[in-house]
Q: What sequence folds into this?
């Protein structure tokens, strides 16, 4: 009949019972707030992992020696030495799906500069390394191909190393630092990157020509790994196939023989982590969804009691001309108003809680607009769904019986 | 002279309770013209309330036809009857039946809330006029629990008037009130009668019959007496003769 009037009637009825309406809402408020917060936390975790992976280079490919690991079998030393500089050079020559490629060897130890020392490690890499890892030179410059050819005793250091070895603020460029008695001249400083989500300091890094690290620091002839980057993220698959082909040829592996190397892509890692975080989000959302359901049942319960309690009122309304649909609409509007108001408060509460988690616990939190829309829609549906039965019961009352109800 | 508002033709109403059939009304026929003030009397269980519910379109007869303002009601759907009640009927109940925690004016506005032809402004205006007509012009914002029984019944009467009904139906409207307040309400009904309204008033009190224009007596579902009262007493005079209550 008249929507505005019915709306007014329902609003009045709720206003007459504010406390009860609020307590009924509480279930919805908590339900919606927890859905939003849980999804925000779940998606926050996902996004921070994604950011990190793309920060590390989302098209990065890592090649390691040793075949595919089968449960618990220890790899012997020779298996760990299958990657050679020749492999790196072959890949560099032949692969068209790669934009950058760099060997990787690592020497750990105490870094010393004057009176200061700091335990760290030096990565022996090629010039492409900074592009692959998406690092930027802040001061000075990257070492050159010539440095690599000459096994020059030069290095580029990260901000943490600067802070620890040059605490008094002197310019590290041109200074000599030592690792295991080998002096390395600092030619560049990397831009600071900060900590990653796993709590690793990305600025605790020293890179030097791989030839220098292999010959002067480690005295080895094999590589610990090769880093490469695919032309694009989509091309990662092709790049992996290409690398596999080149390496098998290099290692003279026959058909049917297992690879004696292992290729991992950042994309693979990111897919895996996405699956995990999505599962986490779904789980959290399910738990929160259950509380929303419980809230809905709360509405049904209260509306049901309210219909019984207000039987005479319903009878009176019918006697002055309210039709069944009017009564049905009134109770439905009441239920929906409760759930929508609860939904609004819940959305605000959920956003507030998410921000609180962000500021207080320093968790990465991303409020998802779709989760707000979704929980809001669910709320309205909840109101209609759980309000329907009591409202129908009210509308089906016989006016005379209702008026006589004690 | 004046037109017929209510016409009952052989109205029967049976209730089936378990195996038994209760004959509440066994063939009631009469008609009521516009402007009549009819009292319906009879012993308890004689079928007065059943009759009134049928007159008020809350209930439908098992047999017979009922014409309200010329409209046959028996075959009407539930919804149509609701609309009919909304436009043509004003109810006054023994226990007032006001909405709790609600002001007088909102209670009176209620029937118009279900009539979309009436704007909010008009609704309020009519409710105020109605409350003034029952002498509660100064109690507009009082809530139901802040009023005496007599005042609550006046609000209920104002609510019955607000839709300008074809007929006002009262079921023992003075049953819960003391003598003095009962007469005050009766004065109000007589005033409405004088204004030309049609009133049907169910009561147990035989004295009230002398203040109405016609008296119908029911017994066991039959009309046993239907007399016109040519010598209508004035409730106002009777009220003046009553001893004053201290608390009024
Ligand atoms: N819903 C019902 N179901 C079964 N029987 C009913 C119902 N309503 C009324 N009756 C029966 O119909 C008869 C008339 O009842 P009604 O309420 O009309 O009496 P009344 O004249 O109003 O009595 P009172 O003066 O006590 O109010 C009674 O015998 C009653 O038991
Ligand atoms: Mg009765």
A:
């Amino acid at each position: 009949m008249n929507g505005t009037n019915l709306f007014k009637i329902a609003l009045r009825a709720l206003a007459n019972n504010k406390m009860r309406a609020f307590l009924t809402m509480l279930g919805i408020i908590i339900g919606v707030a927890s859905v939003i917060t849980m999804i925000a936390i779940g998606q926050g975790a996902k996004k921070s992992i994604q950011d990190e992976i793309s920060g590390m280079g989302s098209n990065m490919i890592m090649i390691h020696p040793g075949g595919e690991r089968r449960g618990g079998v220890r790899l012997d030393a020779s298996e760990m030495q299958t990657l050679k500089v020749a492999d790196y050079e072959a890949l560099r020559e032949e692969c068209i799906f790669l934009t950058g490629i760099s060997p990787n060897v690592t020497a750990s130890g105490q870094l010393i500069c004057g009176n200061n020392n700091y335990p760290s490690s030096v990565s022996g890499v090629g010039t492409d390394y900074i592009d692959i890892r998406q690092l930027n030179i802040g001061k000075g410059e990257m070492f050159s191909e010539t440095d690599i050819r000459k096994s020059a005793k030069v290095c580029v250091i990260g901000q943490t190393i600067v802070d620890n070895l040059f605490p008094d603020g002197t310019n590290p460029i041109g200074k000599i630092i030592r690792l295991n008695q080998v002096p390395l001249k600092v030619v560049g400083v990397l831009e600071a990157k900060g900590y990653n989500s796993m709590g690793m300091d990305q600025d605790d890094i020293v890179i030097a020509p791989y030839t220098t690290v292999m010959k002067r620091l480690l005295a080895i002839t094999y590589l610990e790994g090769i880093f490469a980057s695919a032309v694009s993220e989509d091309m990662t698959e092709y790049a992996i196939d290409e690398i596999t082909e080149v390496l098998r040829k290099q290692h003279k592996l026959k058909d049917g023989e297992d690879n004696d190397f292992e290729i991992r892509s950042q994309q693979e890692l990111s897919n895996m982590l996405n699956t995990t975080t999505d599962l986490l989000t779904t789980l959290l959302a399910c738990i929160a969804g259950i509380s929303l359901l419980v809230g809905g049942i709360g509405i049904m319960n209260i509306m049901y009691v309210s219909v019984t309690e207000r039987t005479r009122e319903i009878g009176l309304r019918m006697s002055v001309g309210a039709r069944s649909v009017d009564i049905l609409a009134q109770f439905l509007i009441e239920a929906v108003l409760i759930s929508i108001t609860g939904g609004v408060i819940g959305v605000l509460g959920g956003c507030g809680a998410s921000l609180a988690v962000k500021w207080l616990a320093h968790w990465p939190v991303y409020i998802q607009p779709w989760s707000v829309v979704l929980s809001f829609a669910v709320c309205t549906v909840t109101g209609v769904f759980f309000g329907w039965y009591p409202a129908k019961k009210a509308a089906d009352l016989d006016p005379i019986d209702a008026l006589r109800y004690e | 002279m004046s037109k017929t508002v209510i016409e009952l033709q052989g109205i029967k109403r049976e209730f089936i309770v378990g195996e038994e059939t209760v004959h509440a009304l066994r063939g009631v026929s009469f008609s009521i013209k516009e402007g009549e003030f009819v009292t319906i009397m009879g012993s308890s269980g004689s079928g007065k309330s059943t009759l009134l519910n049928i007159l008020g379109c809350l209930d439908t007869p098992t047999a017979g036809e009922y014409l309200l303002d010329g409209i046959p009601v028996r075959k009407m759907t539930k919804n149509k009857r609701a609309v009919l009640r909304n436009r043509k009927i004003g109810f006054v109940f023994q226990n007032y039946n006001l909405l709790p925690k609600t002001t007088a004016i909102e209670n009176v506005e209620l029937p118009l809330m279900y009539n979309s032809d009436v704007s909010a402004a008009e609704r309020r205006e009519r409710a105020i006029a109605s409350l003034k007509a029952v002498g509660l012009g100064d109690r507009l914002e009082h809530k139901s629990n802040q009023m005496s029984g007599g005042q609550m019944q006046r609000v209920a009467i104002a609510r019955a008037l607000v839709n300008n009904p074809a007929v006002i139906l009262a079921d023992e409207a003075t049953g819960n009130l003391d003598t003095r307040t009962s007469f005050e309400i009766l004065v109000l009904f007589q005033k409405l009668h004088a204004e030309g309204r049609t009133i049907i008033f169910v009561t147990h009190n035989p004295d009230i019959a002398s203040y109405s224009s016609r008296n119908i007596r029911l017994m066991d579902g039959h009309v046993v007496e239907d007399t016109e009262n040519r010598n209508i007493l004035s409730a106002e005079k009777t009220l003046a003769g009553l001893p004053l209550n201290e608390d009024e």
Summary: The pocket of magnesium ion (ligand 2) is lined by residues B 48-49 (CB under 6 Å). The first strand of chain A starts at residue 60 and ends at 65.
